[in-house]
Amino acid sequence: MPIRDILLQLNNYPEPTPSWAIESAAAIAERLEARLSIGLCEVQLPDVSNFLSELLVRSREVIATENDKSARNALALLRKFEAVVPAERAGETIRINCPALATGWQLAARSRPYDFLIVPIYGHPETRSIAEALIFESGRPVLLLPPEGMAEHRLDDVVVGWDGSRAAARALAEARDLLTLAKTVTVATVTDDKDLAGTAPSEDVVRHLSRHGVSAQAAQVPLAGGDAGEALTAFCRQRGANLLVMGAFGHTRARQFLLGGATRSIVANPGLMVLMAH
Questions:
Q1: What is the DSSP string of the chain?
Q2: 154-277 adopts what CATH topology?
Q3: Do residues 31 and 4 touch, judged by C-beta distance below 8 A?
Q4: Pairing of strands 157-161, 243-247
Q5: Long-range contacts of residues 66-71, Cβ cutoff 8 Å, at least 24 apart
Q6: Which of 89-98, 100-109, 115-124, 241-250 has the lowest mean pLDDT?
Q7: pLDDT for res 185
Q8: Domains 5-147 and 154-277 fall in the same CATH topology
Q9: How high is the pLDDT of residue 149?
Q10: CATH number of 5-147
Q11: Each residue of 112-134: pLDDT tens digit?
């Protein structure tokens, strides 16, 4: 089933999502002939002032000023979206109240009917926690979009990270429609990272993709001292790839995520567009 329904995650505070992210997401939606909706986390700082803080630093005034800034940022984001996305491509606007700080938990629950989510990576302090919540709780694939990912929005060269795992298989299935748009697809396996005995080799993935009309080739990528995520992004940079597809690994303990090393390094610094699925 082709991709027709995309959700873009936006933040309004403390640093609003930059304009390039909305423009890039709009171009991706246009390329895929999809509708683009937005999920806006609107931060509202609670009044935690007391007599002493009010006396010393006028805390209520500070909080009111920051909340005004947050509201103005939200309005500017909505206007930018309306200006950039044509009516025939615009979907829904989901506005979520986020007390104190941006979070992805509420948006994860609202995002499940969409084909995939876009999370801009631009230095917002809560980016990692938002990406984690959406990757592991939405049940949908998440496209990490750094500034580098906006260049011409091409999908000419796509790398699929493959280790035979359930998460890698899920990412492969979610990306299949994107792979049909690529001119070159490489199924890359990082060597010396984990025991792959008994798993399906990358050649089997190449065969599978050929039955879906996608011509691909297999490649072995050396670990070279870092983790698998760093090895895959280095391989992508070397060949000038536009998109990396990979599974996300992690589990929860006391409602906190413990990420696998490759997933952690990719979320922190993707370097190119990365489609992750869990």
A1: ----EEEEEEE-SSSPPPHHHHHHHHHHHHHHT-EEEEEEEEEE------HHHHHHH-HHHHHHHHHHHHHHHHHHHHHHHHHHS-TTTEEEEEEEEEESS--SHHHHHHSTTSSEEEEE-S--TTHHHHHHHHHHHSSS-EEEE-GGGGSTT--SEEEEE--S-HHHHHHHHHHHHHHTT-SEEEEEEEETSS--TTSPPHHHHHHHHHTTT--EEEEEEE-TTS-HHHHHHHHHHHHT-SEEEEE--EEEETTEEEE-HHHHHHHH--SSEEEEE-
A2: Rossmann fold (3.40.50)
A3: no
A4: parallel
A5: 66/13, 69/13, 70/12, 70/13, 70/42, 70/43, 70/44, 70/45, 71/42
A6: 100-109
A7: 98
A8: yes
A9: 65
A10: 3.40.50.620
A11: 999 999 999 998 888 888 998 89
Number of residues written out for the chain: 278
From the list 119, 126, 13, 5, the residue with the least C-alpha distance to 66 is 13
| Domain residue spans of the chain | 5-147, 154-277
One-letter identity of residue 141: P
β 256-259/250-253 pair status: antiparallel
